[in-house]
Specification:
The radius of gyration is 14 Å and the shape is elongated. It is an alpha+beta fold and about 70 residues long. Strand 2 and strand 3 form a beta hairpin. Helices cover about 35% and strands about 25% of the residues. It binds zinc ion.
């Protein structure tokens, strides 16, 4: 078994990444997907890691975001 890489966790879609950050102010771990804008916050790193492991990008959301970006650029 190869060692598990925690930072960053690749999504199913190759260009997407879930990054895990420590937000010191509220004292929470924050996982955020750079592709579909999904995010999860918890004081327990294990929960955030589990969310990142389970996270699958929503293709509809990615398409919607891409469409919004195109409209913004136009
Ligand atoms: Zn995602």
């Amino acid at each position: 078994m190869p060692a598990r890489h925690l930072y960053p966790v690749p999504c199913l879609v190759p260009v997407t990444l879930v990054t895990i950050e420590w937000d010191a102010a509220p004292g929470l771990h924050l996982a955020r997907c750079g592709a579909c804008a999904a995010h999860f916050r918890s004081s327990r790193l294990g929960e955030v890691e589990a969310w990142a492991d389970r996270h699958h990008c929503d293709p509809e959301m990615i398409a919607l975001l891409a469409e919004t970006d195109l409209r913004r650029a136009a």
